[in-house]
Amino acid sequence: MRKPLVLRHPSILVFLGVLAVFTVAVTVLSAGYGTGAISTSMVKTLGKTLCLALAAVAMDLVWGYAGILSLGQMAFFALGGYMIGMWLMVARTEGIVAGSLANLPIPPTDAEISAAVATQIFGVVGSDKFPMIWAFSGSLWGQLALVVLVPGLLALVFGWLAFRSRVNGVYLSILTQAMTLALALYLFQNDSGLRGNNGLSGLQNIPGLDAVSQEKLSIWFLWASAVTLGLGYLLIAWVASGKFGSVTRAIRDDEARVRFLGYSVEGYKLVVFVLAAVVTAIAGALYYPQAGIINPAELAPIASIYLAVWVAIGGRGRLYGAAIGAIFVSMLSSWFTGGRAPDVNLGFYTIKWVDWWQVLLGLSFVLVTLLAPKGIAGLVDLFEGLRPPKRQGQPMGPDMGSLREKEAVE
Amino acid sequence: MRLFLLVLAFVALVLPIHARAQTADLAAVVSQYRDQIEKPSRQSIGPVVDEIAATGAQGAALLQAWNERLLGLRKSDGLLVIAAPEGDGLKLTDAATGADLGSAAEADVTMLRPNSGVRGVISAAMAGNALSDPDPKRRIEALDSMSRRADASQLALLREAMDDPDPALAARKQRLERMLTIQYDSDPAARIAAIEGFGGDSGLDFRASLNPILAMRRVAFEEIPSGTNIAKELSLGGDLSREDAYAMLVAEGLAPARLTPQAMRATLAQHIVQGSVGGVPLAQLADQDARDRAYTALEAQGTVQPAASDDEVEAALARYKFLDVYAEPNPDVTTAARAALRSTETRIGLMQAADLSLDALSLASIYFLAAIGLAVTFGVMGVINMAHGEFIMMGAYTGYVVQQFIADRTVSLIVALPLAFVVTFAAGVALERLVIRHLYKRPLETLLATFGVSIALQQLAKNIFGTQARPLTSPAWLDGALTFNDVVSISYIRIAIFVLALVFLGLYLFIMNRTRLGLEVRAVTQNPAMAASMGISPDRINMLTFGLGSGIAGIAGVAIGLFAKVTSELGSDYIVQSFMTVVVGGVGNIWGTLAGAALIGFLQKGIEWFNPANTLAAQTYMILFIIIFIQFRPRGIIAAKGRAVGA
Amino acid sequence: MKYYSSALAAALMTVGLAGTGWAQDDTIKIGVLHSLSGTMAISETTLKDTVLMMVEQQNAKGGLLGKKIEAVVVDPASDWPLFAEKARELISVNGVDAIFGCWTSVSRKSVLPVIEELNGLLFYPVQYEGEESSKNVIYTGAAPNQQAIPAVDYMAEELGVEKWALLGTDYVYPRTTNNILDAYLKGKGVAEGDIFVNYTPFGHSDWSKIVADVVALGADGKKVGVVSTINGDANIGFYKELAAAGVSADDIPVMAFSVGEEELAGLDTTNLVGHLAAWNYFESADTPENKAFIDEWHKFTKNDKRVTNDPMEATMIGFNAWVKAVEKAGTTDTDPVLDAIVGVEVPNLTGGTATVLPNHHLTKPVLIGEIRADGQFDIVSQTDEVAGDAWTDFLPDSAKLDSDWTGKKCGMWNTETNSCVQLGSNY
């Protein structure tokens, strides 16, 4: 009888424990349910960061475990946000419009309500009709299903096409980047029906919960984000741990050999890719109601690259590493760009972190890649005294195992 | 200043007719129209200008000064003065009398700023006389002004001044005269002759003089009045939808409007009686059928005006004929104009296609130029360099910096091109030595590390040069465009980029196929270990190759900066497209890159042609096409064959 | 020992928790919400400096209500969700009484829900597309009827333009403005075929085809005019291509709504002389107020070359209006200030006064400038003050809407049904 998953991988238990402690701590210190030491905007930032951490964990599954460097993950993230945002906008506006039309002497027809809602939502982009893609926007369950279905389907089609043609390595990376760029450009168009550059806004006002203050709502979302992160982490850890995980890692290390062993490489990759896309989309659907606004800039290629950066800095190939990376770098980023970091006066020049943070981030990224491929999570190995073997020289070929030239001599 | 006096003298000399026919005193005219002169409007200034022109030489001088924005008000006494710049200050002349008022500081005079519409009126008023001016420049200006805003009166003036010592100008006058004849001559035969005299001319100006003749409006008649020059009788449902036709009748007051849902609702609201309308309870009125019933009930009661029913609409539509009618009354003229326009259609279409192809070619060469450096680093070495775009940007900024030190733009360009190569070559070598060298076995990590370099460089550029676009101005000989005719033209700067792209193609082929370096590069690419054993240092070759690719990016940066803009985001605008170009074309083959650039350029322009209102859509669908294309031809248009595939 | 790894995560999570502010009672705080980094930094940093300059001047005059004004500057980094977050922080953590900020429409729409929820006060200083009126926002920039409509009138009347090319960057301001212009022009009898519309992406650089399309419009023998709502960097390529194609301002005048002194600094303007821009302020305005403002600006920034522009004037007017309203109300609380601010008059830099209207817009003069070779504008037309209209009269859905925060207490009043559509604004 095998031990349960969490006992085989104690890090999972630690992660979940820390997450729970953190959530409780924030709740106790929050303005909504506690002392108020943490402001509501900070609670929202923390909640959003948890969602980003989940996206990073999914990214780690794709990149760290399956070796697919997808530079389009934020496309799924934003799509999730768009899908839930559609419902939020329609439901909220419907409440307002129905309220105002109810004052009229003649009660409004459904068509009139729908037209008034459309005018309110699309007036910004000079239209007054619901585009086709808003067909399910009136139903919460419909849009929730779309949160999973749309990004999942996109990942399925894209992945199937790409893996089938054996596009891999850097080609695949560029292709995923092109995918998110094309999607961003498409959404930027007003004709796309998702309000172009303006995107969907006012998402923090949850329909039906007008009476609940943002102080409380932000905590609710923090809880939801924490629970989702916990569940997502568990799911991905489970997927990555069993035989499935082993095959996935084998594909990462040598795709051709796995194929010769008779595994359906494409199938494994596709499952991983779609699963990650769906998890990312769920994270996005939780993120944007906290952010309040979503627009196409959110899925610009740079956003997905940052996601990869977080995972790399955190340490890829370990889920907690990815989460740490996302939390650490995104919080640090907002600290530096928020103008809160003190300027450094060098006498002849004052370093303003608002200007220099990006340079620092870029360079530290190069350094991490070059010197510490394991990222922050590598510190854990250091702590435990785990050292990778010092590899030297050229590989000696298949018959000699993993030994290399100089090692063999020594 | 002397030039200005000279101009004044000319004006005085060439206006003998008006000088003699001095009818009114200029001072009186000026004081009468003082308000209009201070705040002129194009639509009302015409008579004032004519009156001033009629006063003689000083009036003409005033107009001339006004047109050149040298007219002002002296702040001390509000006198209208001509203020010509002189040294640091202004030299004042009384605009009404021509009396010399000495000089004054700029702050003492409020300058008048006639807008370009008013200036157009003034220069048109002066054009008639300027047509025979001894100065060819003024004659050209007069012709320009006349071709912009001609009217019937100017046809006579032009015909008087047809002779010109300059044959080119004489030809222009001739052409303009024919053009004005088409539009303004009173004799239809002369107009038709003029139209036919142009043959199959496809000039924009010729079409511009024909199209107003063919201007038409849409009307509805019960009886077609005689003498109507009908362009086309419209068929209902075909040329004109029934709804639009009826809306036309309503707009012209020929038929009652149909009931809109809004109007019905408003009417119903006015007739609420004890919580119901026409017997239908209010609560039920949240339904269109119920509302119809309520309205019908009201109609039956006679309380509301019956709305136009479908039958009435049909009857009204049947009663009227819908026509497109020419504003020009003479059918012979419109027929001739139409025939002339039709004969140009095919040629214009072909020329538009040619123009589009030139645009596409130009775009392709820009992509090629941006991608050729990548073709070296990515295509040959297989190193993915996300900072490639930033090398392009560095090149562009080098051009900008050089221009700050060397004022002469030709010289600065000559200095900037090699300097950009040197700068980015050095940057490339540094990047290769410090980062990429350690990651040859880990391509995905190269991608990420170079991306880190890219964001650092981009932010560095922002810190140094600011986020605002910087000017990089091309030398004067690259200004303007090579114009084949009114439709087909291409700017010289684009031609220069095209030539540069060709030069680089040649250079690449030469280096790779004809030099020692190229031989060694190919050897290292194919088998580094074997090459090393032959005495080639792969390290050195990799460094040089990478430097070469980066250097080319730098030169491309100067060219792109010249034609577009220099910003810190310049590189990232091109990076995805550049990679696409290389990947679509096929890695490792310069002809593939060329094919990729051509495909992308022509494709994008083609989509733009289908949907001219939305350029963003063109880019979106282009990328989408490429994604799908790569799925089906993962190795690009020109796929590498044989052993190189595995490498 | 692996457990430490995750403990690390927890430690990192709490890094950002510190940093709650403390309130000082002897100062009045205002927030400055302009991007200091990212793509919008170039435009918005100038406005941040303007607010700081105004604060310094006001404090030199003895402050406000006997207290010093303190500006709290935050950086939303051109990131739209961050605008909302920072606005919340400014109001609920820093306790500011008014916020001066935002540039793009999308950033304003991002901030709106927060400002309305927390009953804050935002001064928005940029020309925008209208179709909005919030209780908590004072719009000190131009509404479409204070810029676009007069500019188009000018082109039709003074330049005789009969055929229109509406070129814009693909985002909400050009889209809405062009929709309004399209309806307006058609209302004036311009045929459908005489209006050409094109949208390009941000930072577009390949303009040859579009310029060729515009030139080809001239084949009708009608005078062609371009109304440009092209934004930012893209203008450079556009004007370069225009110059290369030999399109002179006399043949095809281009009227720009988003090109000011600052944008022209990136260009060689010799080939652009005579093209136009419409604003409510130009640096070249010849008034003593403007001269004093420019001198102050140069002194404050210690740079004689810094240009001034329209949003700066709007920021200045907004700040002065706020100061006057606070003095009138005797408090900095939002509601009394909002009641007091309607009707407040502040001198413009171009002469005349700006009055805060019940719809939270201002009266503004409309200026048309022709580009000069030195990158400045010749003012060729200046109207009297025009009252800003929140809801345009030229779109059917908006024509019936009205905004009145003093009488009707509603920003979206339906004049057909005489009812308030909604109290919050449409974001």
TrEMBL record, chain A:
**Membrane-spanning segments:** 12-33, 45-64, 71-90, 140-163, 170-188, 217-240, 267-287, 293-312, 319-336, 356-383
Q: What is its main location?
A: membrane
Q: Does the keyword Transmembrane helix apply?
A: yes
According to the UniProt record, one GO cellular component term is:
plasma membrane
**Keyword tags:** Cell membrane, Membrane, Transmembrane, Transmembrane helix
Give the bilayer topology: Multi-pass membrane protein
Q: Does the keyword Hydrolase apply?
A: no
The listed locations are:
Cell membrane
Q: Name one GO molecular function term.
A: branched-chain amino acid transmembrane transporter activity
Q: Which InterPro entries match?
A: ABC_transp_permease (IPR001851), ABC_transptr_urea_perm_UrtC (IPR017778), LivM-like (IPR043428)
Ranges for the region named Disordered are 390-410
Q: What is this protein called?
A: Urea ABC transporter permease subunit UrtC
Native source species = Paracoccus aestuariivivens
From TrEMBL, chain B:
| Annotated Gene Ontology cellular component terms | plasma membrane
Signal peptide location: 1-21
Q: Name one GO molecular function term.
A: transmembrane transporter activity
From the Swiss-Prot or TrEMBL record, state where the protein is found. Cell membrane
Chief subcellular location equals membrane
Query: What does the entry give for GO biological process?
Result: amino acid transport
Which InterPro entries does this entry report, sorted A to Z?
ABC_transp_permease, ABC_UrtB_bac, BCAA_transport_permease
- Record keywords: Amino-acid transport, Cell membrane, Membrane, Signal, Transmembrane, Transmembrane helix, Transport
Q: Give the record's membrane topology.
A: Multi-pass membrane protein
CDD domains noted in UniProt: TM_PBP1_LivH_like
**In the UniProt record, does the keyword DNA-binding occur?**
no
Is the keyword Transport assigned to this protein?
A: yes
> Where do the TM regions start and end?
360-384, 413-431, 492-511, 543-563, 575-603, 615-632
Q: Which family would the database say this protein is a member of?
A: Belongs to the binding-protein-dependent transport system permease family. LivHM subfamily.
What is the official name of this protein in its record?
A: Urea ABC transporter permease subunit UrtB
Q: Which gene encodes it?
A: urtB
From TrEMBL, chain C:
Task: Indicate the segments annotated as coiled coil, or none if absent.
Answer: none
Give the signal peptide, or none: 1-23
Q: Does the keyword RNA-binding apply?
A: no
Protein keywords: Signal
Source organism of this protein record: Paracoccus aestuariivivens
What protein is this chain from?
Urea ABC transporter substrate-binding protein
InterPro entries hit by this protein: ABC_urea-bd_UrtA, Peripla_BP_I
Q: Does the keyword Flavoprotein apply?
A: no
Family annotation (Pfam families): Peripla_BP_5
